[in-house]
């Protein structure tokens, strides 16, 4: 039940629980990018492609990254139910853009589709508005169509990509949501 879920700032003991979450995904689809450059035109098309078999995708960041984010993040939230961390979100503020940038939004595989991610995102959005930020940015791998759909459902729109963004060389898709 969502009313039992508590979204709160993470503390040091929460880090171990965050590191132990199963943050991998299993997918039958990926997003494929087709880019065509002509004289004065750059055309980019994203196409969702079905894979011949399910693909298990490990999370594209390592534990050291999460610990560093906890130290440096402007906001690091955990979703806790019955004393168990079920997910987390961390973001950094980019003051020159008046934007909050979500670096990680993770929900343990066993708790997905229970509105845990939505609760984390809503709390982050509220915090950003309290900080007078104008937009919220997010990124996800092309191998995570569930995250793409999640962000789109919550008002984010595609705004770019980087074809070697993650250490494992996966492609990142970027999304933005205007706060109002």
Written description of the protein model:
α3 (116-130) links the parallel β6 (99-107) and β7 (135-141). The chain has a single domain (2-178), classed as Aminopeptidase, CATH 3.40.630.30. It contains 4 helices and 9 strands, in the order βαββαβββαβαββ. The chain has helices at 12-20, 63-72, 116-130, 145-153, and strands at residues 6-9, 25-38, 41-57, 75-81, 84-94, 99-107, 135-141, 157-162, 172-178. The radius of gyration is 17 Å and the shape is globular. It is an alpha+beta fold and 180 residues long.
Major beta sheet, strand line-up = 1-4-5-6-7-9-8
Alpha-carbon distance between the termini? 29 Å
Q: How large is the share of residues in beta strands?
A: over 45%
Q: Main β-sheet: number of strands, strand sense, barrel status?
A: 7 strands, mixed
Q: Which of globular, elongated, flat, extended, rod-shaped describes the shape?
A: globular
Task: Compute the number of helices.
Answer: 4
Helical amount among residues, as a percent range? Answer: 10-25%
Q: What is the CATH C level class, in words?
A: Alpha Beta
Counted beta strands: 9
Summarize the helix and strand pattern as letters. EHEEHEEEHEHEE
The Cα radius of gyration reads 17 Å
The assigned CATH architecture is 3-Layer(aba) Sandwich
Average pLDDT, all residues = 93
Sheet/helix structural class: alpha+beta
CATH superfamily: Gcn5-related N-acetyltransferase (GNAT)
Number of domains: 1
Q: Any low-confidence stretches, pLDDT <50, length ≥5?
A: none
User: Which fold name is given in CATH as the topology?
Assistant: Aminopeptidase
């Amino acid at each position: 039940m969502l009313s039992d879920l508590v979204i709160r700032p993470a503390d040091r003991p929460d880090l171990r629980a965050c590191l132990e979450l199963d943050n991998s995904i299993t997918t039958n689809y990926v997003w494929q990018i087709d880019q065509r450059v002509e004289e004065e035109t750059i055309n980019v098309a994203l196409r969702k492609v079905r894979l011949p078999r399910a693909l298990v995708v490990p999370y594209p960041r390592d534990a050291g990254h999460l610990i560093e984010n906890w130290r440096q993040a402007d906001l690091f939230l955990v979703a806790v139910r019955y004393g168990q961390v079920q997910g987390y979100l961390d973001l950094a503020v980019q003051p020159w853009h008046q934007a909050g940038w979500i670096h990680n939004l993770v929900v343990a595989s066993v708790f997905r589709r229970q509105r845990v991610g939505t609760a984390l995102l809503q709390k982050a959005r509220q915090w950003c508005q309290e900080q007078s930020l104008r937009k919220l940015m997010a990124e996800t791998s092309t191998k995570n169509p569930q995250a793409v759909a999640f962000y789109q459902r919550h008002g984010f729109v595609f705004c770019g990509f980087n074809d070697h963004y993650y250490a494992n060389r996966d492609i990142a898709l970027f999304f933005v949501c205007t706060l109002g």
